[in-house]
Design a protein that fits this description.
The protein has helices spanning 69-73, 100-106, 118-131, 182-187, 220-223, 231-247, 260-271, 288-298, 343-355, 367-384, 401-409, 418-424, 428-436, 443-449, 466-475, 495-502, 504-509, and strands spanning 9-10, 37-44, 52-59, 62-67, 81-91, 93-98, 110-111, 140-143, 169-172, 177-180, 200-204, 210-216, 250-258, 278-284, 305-313, 359-364, 392-395, 413-416, 452-455, 527-530, 547-552, 555-559. With 560 residues, it is an alpha/beta fold. Helix 2 (100-106) crosses helix 6, helix 6 crosses helix 7 (260-271) and helix 12 (418-424) packs across helix 15.
């Protein structure tokens, strides 16, 4: 783990660390308005007309010049700070799909992501509970039962004896399946007599008793009794999340499924001048009316905080066998997934939000979920007439071939997470078979069809690290090492295509393409300096690439 050094001050505060120097030009040779900062290196601009440059000049919060070293030298004056030796300089990464405040919370919660056995799963919860106060909730988790080789889903009996005084509610890493201990089930009044929830599943033992695992909408039974974080806890989580983002070169995020207490925390951070990450907010689409009223009263926001979107769900996840497909699962033939929201509700929410002028983003993973969502998007757009609406599909993981072209034709943004491809690729074929995986995480096919890609992490479901995402999109090498040539290798893309999806693609996805996503004069000075040139290292070495420095609005917010 990198040691964070968050410095919300002008770049002069880190002189010497990264090769800064004060230019020794005499006063009669300096330009009338020299730049505050000049960065030299191999500059990938993100501008298709001129993708490469040698230097970037910054004044205040904006870029004033991009070009070759000799032309940028004219921007250097006695007070200009200069950074040399930048192996690669790129626009600030934008993560197109995060659960931002929950990422901030997760940094201090129990971590089960790499717990490779049930025994290790239990040990970590036991150790965490030993340090918790009585009554304190144990949350987080991110466990992955696919690591346990034939072991069934966890059961509350595993952890009851080690957590007698603490409610436990720990997620599977996809967030669509969670384990509760018996204390939580009692608090939520969930027992053998509790009826199943529409859009969700209460997993049961053969005798009908709940195992403690709840899927999708059934999780709401517990959320209803889970305490809301205090303002102080929320503020601290946002602060941690922003610092963590900066350490990975992330200068902006699309923040989805946002609770209103998080909106409040972001507003407090903005008002106090504490923002170092630019955030675009998408609340639950059931709250479209409240969001529309807020936009009417306050506008959509500014360069730091945009609050003008809603996000909903069609289905669940592949790992939880709740993603919605046209055909049953190969390894669970009794199901083809589930709809988290009924079709009539989906149409109503999307239509209402679009009528109110809000941007709509909807989670769809299975091929049937994606096909249905495209049908709804198409009919709503036709009914309401042309406007710059920028509908988004969050994940777009499993697609029929005909729907790849439809995404492009309809102008729908495919908001995708490359890390999931090399994670799910370890076991996805057993779920849906060899034919359906051919258009799974179909990056190459979508780009070739002319679709707009916006890449993200789905943090905390996956690490908040664009460099790992680029590695995944370019190599498609699964984390188990079993696909060295790439899983579904025909869907690989190039480094520059992946960079575009993490920069300009996401800027477009949040209506920010006129100010962000490129290194060009007049754009905001959100810049990342990398230790390696991603276009010159071997693809398999991309996962080891590192961020040297992150700059947001002309200010250093992270340095290694």
């Amino acid at each position: 783990m990198l040691r964070l050094s968050i410095l919300p001050l002008l770049l002069g505060g880190v002189a010497g660390v990264l090769g800064y120097r004060t230019n020794p030009l005499s006063s009669d040779s300096i330009p009338a308005a020299p730049a505050n900062l000049v960065i030299y290196g191999r500059v990938w601009t993100g501008d298709s007309a001129k993708p490469w440059a040698q230097a970037v000049a910054i004044s205040g919060e904006k870029i004033v010049a991009v070009g070759d070293s000799s032309s940028i030298a004219a921007q250097v004056g006695p007070g200009t700070k200069v950074i040399g030796n930048g192996a690669m300089v790129v626009p600030g990464f934008i993560d197109g799909h995060t659960h931002f405040i929950y990422g901030g919370f997760q940094l201090t919660q129990v971590d089960l992501r790499d717990a490779d056995t049930p025994a290790e799963f239990v040990r970590r919860i036991k150790n965490y509970a030993a340090k918790a106060k009585p009554g304190e909730w144990i949350l987080g988790g991110n466990w992955d039962h696919e690591r346990w080789a034939g072991t069934p889903l966890p059961d509350r009996s595993w952890i009851d004896s080690v957590t007698p005084n603490n409610p436990v509610f720990v997620d599977r890493l996809d967030g669509h399946m969670t384990l509760a201990n018996s204390l939580v089930l009692k608090m939520a009044h969930v027992d053998r007599s509790t009826k199943d929830v529409a859009g969700g599943t209460i997993v049961r033992r053969p005798d009908g008793e709940p195992t403690g695992v709840v899927k999708d909408a059934a999780q709401n039974l517990v959320y209803a009794v889970q305490p809301t974080p205090s303002p102080q806890q929320s503020d601290a989580a946002i602060e941690r999340a922003m610092h963590w983002a900066a350490s990975h070169g992330v200068t902006g995020v699309a923040d989805v499924s946002v609770p209103w207490f998080e909106v409040d925390a972001l507003q407090r951070a903005h008002a106090a001048g504490r923002m170092i990450t630019r955030v675009a907010v998408y609340v639950a689409f059931q709250d479209w009316r409240r969001m529309a009223e807020r936009v009417k009263a306050n506008g959509v926001g500014d360069d730091w905080l945009r609050v003008a979107g809603v996000k909903g769900y069609v289905d669940g996840s592949l790992g939880s066998t709740t993603a919605l497909f046209y055909e049953p699962y190969n390894d669970a033939p009794q199901t083809s997934g589930l709809m988290v929201n009924p079709e009539d509700s989906l149409r109503s929410y999307i239509s209402s939000a679009d009528s109110a002028g809000l941007q709509v983003a909807v989670h769809a993973i299975g091929d049937r979920a994606n096909g249905l969502l495209l049908d709804i998007y198409d009919s709503v757009a036709q009914a309401h007439g042309p406007r710059d609406r920028r509908f988004r599909i969050e994940h777009a993981q499993h697609l029929r071939r005909q729907d790849i072209g439809r995404i492009a034709r309809l102008g729908v943004i495919a908001s995708m997470q490359p890390y999931h491809a090399v994670d799910d690729g370890r076991w996805a074929e057993k779920r849906i078979g060899p034919e359906r995986i051919k258009t799974t995480y179909a990056f190459r096919s979508l780009i070739d069809a002319g679709a707009r890609l916006a890449f993200g992490s789905d943090w905390t479901v996956a690490p908040l690290d664009p460099l790992l995402g680029i590695y995944a999109a370019v190599t498609r090498r699964t984390w188990d090492g079993k696909n060295p040539g790439g899983w579904v290798p025909e869907q690989k893309i190039t480094v520059e295509e992946a960079l575009k999806a993490y920069t300009a693609g996401n800027a477009y996805g949040i209506f920010a393409e006129q100010k962000r996503g490129k290194l060009a004069p007049g754009y905001l000075a959100d810049v990342v300096i990398l230790e390696q040139d991603l276009t010159k290292v071997k693809p398999e070495a991309l996962e080891k690439a590192q961020v040297r420095m992150t700059i947001v609005g002309g200010k250093s917010v992270y340095q290694r």
